[in-house]
User: Fold this.
Amino acid sequence: MVLERGDVANSWRRERWDSLRLLTPNWQARLPGHRYDGPDPDGYMTMAEVIEFVSRFAVAAGAPVRTHITVTSVRQTDDGYHVATDHGDFRCRTLVLASGACNLPSVPALRQAVPGSLDCLTPLEYRNPDQLPEGGVLVVGASATGVQLADEIHRSGRSVTLSVGEHVRLPRTYRGRDVLWWMDASGIWNQRYDEVDDLTRARRLPSPQLVGTPERRTLDLNALSAAGVEVVGRLAAVRDGQALFSGGLRNHFALADLKMNRLLDTFDDWAHRHSREADVGHPERFEPTRAPASSRLTLDLGSGEIRSIIWATGFRPDYSWLDVPVVDPKGHLRHEGGVVDAPGLYAIGLPVLRRRKSTFIHGAEDDARDVVDHLAGYLANTTVRQPGQAR
Ligand SMILES: Cc1cc2nc3c(=O)[nH]c(=O)nc-3n(C[C@H](O)[C@H](O)[C@H](O)COP(=O)(O)OP(=O)(O)OC[C@H]3O[C@@H](n4cnc5c(N)ncnc54)[C@H](O)[C@@H]3O)c2cc1C
Assistant:
């Protein structure tokens, strides 16, 4: 059975902002035996469309979902797991942790030093700019969430300062195709976890600066600066009411540009080797990220210039209810390709769980097959103890 604390597609219903669209194109939306079949394969789903897509899959798959049941504790027993919920307890021999990778916002500890006069929001709380007080906004973090929110809030007429650390720059389209088409076609997204050079790093990689819009626009730092968003360095500290930004902005830009160009080289190489040149446009290279003439290093948070802060600093899973010692001191689940470090316990939906695409909707299909294969083998090879039977 599948236990869900809300309704099917709960995270898309409850934890996303109003204007969000997927950054993955519609043709890529697929779950086992279920694909997008609408009129706009190159478009990007709104949240209402994602909810419908996932809900239709749950019905078509006949998934035995029990909704509005919150798991409050999981502990190991002699022959499996004891699952406590707000609607009674269950026992099972195997259990799959499919509770998501983005349950909680990852907010740096320096938040504690921010003056109480400022409104602070995480992306899980943010819905639209009307929630914010009038006045300037500091958005901390420039990955997919940060650039999208900086753009939307700036369009609402507020001045926006965007604090930028390490980030992944991508054009929306390359050589006439969606950049995620290239990730898919060139096999990068299918790369297995045991083939990735630095798996720990790959699992912590920030999300790419991408947005899904009907006009397929690129939302990089050049676009944001040109629109009037002020770009500053990484937020390094908050001291005596001053936000202190790192001076390493140019280095972050150079590194992101370098990595993007390397990726584009890989795409070009793939197109050449697979004789796909005729299917795509000419190779392109993009203007390097423009560094501001001088980016400010401090911002007086008490001056009234900034009235609110959005912490677009990432997400993390919540395992507070998992009473099995499989989470390391940094909060990461100990697992090998989704096979958790406890018999009969599995995970799915975590970054680079088994493939680079693992944390995306279309990544679930291949990972689920592999994880379920292992799980079925485990069940076949372990016997159920009868009451009173010795171990
Ligand atoms: C802002 C944002 C944008 C994204 N955009 C894209 C995108 O464009 N394309 C894409 O492919 N992916 C995107 N993703 C990634 C996306 O989250 C995953 O693709 C997908 O949601 C993963 O599904 P999941 O079922 O593993 O996790 P989730 O969707 O997080 O589902 C986990 C479920 O577990 C339930 N749950 C958690 N704890 C408990 C508990 N204790 N008891 C009972 N139920 C519980 C939750 O209610 C939730 O419904 C985005 C993620 C975020 C945060």
